[in-house]
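Worked example 3 (structure in, sequence out).
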């Protein structure tokens, strides 16, 4: 009997996370569940085979991969998110959770297969990881891991989840033990990052030269729909040259992968996003008008999503950072404004 249960669990874990179930007549996905964790019901959702959540925690199968807390200084919400990928499908769930999160994330070392954790467990795991990394600093990957883990310890001091006195004491002991090593490593690592930034700039320049004929042949909005929202739009032309150069084009249009993109689906009268979210155009039109008039403000709501930032380069709505250039094209598409966008 135990063997049967084990094999059943193993089958569920290896099965693709794209398994969809129906809830209240609507086809749901793990993307929906990740967003629902932040915007939907606070009760644990039992309609998903692969992911679920409760008030504070998000789970991949039976493993906790995310936990909500707050910064005690700013009171901003923080998501503790898994440091480890654990498995191929769980790694996808982690990516979906991170993508859906509307606020800052901090890494935490959760235990594989455990649906419960504690501040003591997370700090003990952190100590074990940073001690191991400190013993093998001749490896570049370990040096980078060490710096990441040290910064995690510093961040934990300001998070509500770790404010018990004995936990704070343990975190401070970790920091004090490794401070000198951290100082030595960051001096060299900062130089390494500067060189890396220069190499990345040169690489982007070379990529742009390589695909410049595509960038001039197709307009920005067409490329956005083809590259970032292909599940919703198919152009009525041969776009093999776009798909053949997809990776290079995406690197140029979204070099740090910090942006999300949107497009208007005129057939179904809604807005589609690169994060697989669909919103009725009736709910989006007032938002577009406010933005165009310069009256969109922090804290305003678009459906269930909150405006978190408005700047010249982008606006952030929930987990979506949408470039201003993208918004201009969508505004013109929705309201059929025939203007040239530079």
């Amino acid at each position: 009997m135990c063997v049967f249960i084990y094999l059943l669990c193993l089958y569920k874990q290896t099965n693709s996370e794209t398994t969809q179930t129906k809830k209240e007549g609507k086809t749901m996905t793990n993307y929906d569940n990740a967003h629902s964790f932040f915007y939907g019901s606070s009760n644990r959702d039992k309609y998903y085979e692969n992911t679920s959540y409760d008030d504070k925690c998000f789970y991949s199968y039976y493993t906790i991969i995310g936990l909500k807390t707050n910064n005690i200084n700013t009171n901003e919400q923080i998501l503790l998110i898994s440091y480890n990928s654990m498995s191929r499908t769980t790694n996808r769930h982690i990516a979906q959770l991170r993508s859906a999160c509307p606020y800052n994330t901090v890494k935490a070392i959760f235990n594989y297969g455990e649906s419960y954790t504690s501040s003591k467990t997370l700090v003990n795991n952190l100590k074990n990881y940073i001690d191991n990394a400190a013993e093998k600093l001749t490896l570049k990957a370990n040096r980078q891991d060490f710096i990441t883990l040290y910064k995690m310890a510093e961040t934990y001091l300001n998070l509500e989840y770790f404010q018990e006195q004995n936990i704070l004491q343990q975190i401070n002991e970790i920091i004090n033990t490794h401070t000198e090593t951290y100082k030595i490593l960051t001096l060299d690592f900062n130089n390494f990052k500067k060189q890396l930034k220069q190499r990345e700039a040169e690489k982007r320049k070379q990529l742009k030269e390589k695909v410049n004929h595509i960038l001039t042949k197709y307009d920005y909005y067409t490329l956005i729909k083809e590259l970032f929202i292909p599940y919703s739009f198919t152009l009525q032309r041969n776009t093999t040259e776009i798909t053949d150069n997809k990776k290079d084009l995406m690197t140029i249009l979204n070099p740090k992968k910090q942006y999300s993109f949107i497009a208007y689906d005129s057939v179904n009268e809604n807005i589609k996003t690169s994060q697989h979210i669909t919103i009725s155009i009736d709910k989006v039109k007032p938002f577009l008008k406010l933005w165009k008039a310069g009256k969109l403000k922090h804290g305003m709501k678009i459906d269930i999503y909150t405006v978190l930032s408005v700047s010249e380069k982008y606006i952030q709505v929930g987990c979506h950072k949408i470039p201003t250039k993208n918004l201009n094209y969508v505004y013109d598409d929705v309201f059929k404004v025939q203007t040239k966008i530079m």
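Notes: Residues 211-335 form one domain. The longest strand covers residues 63-70.
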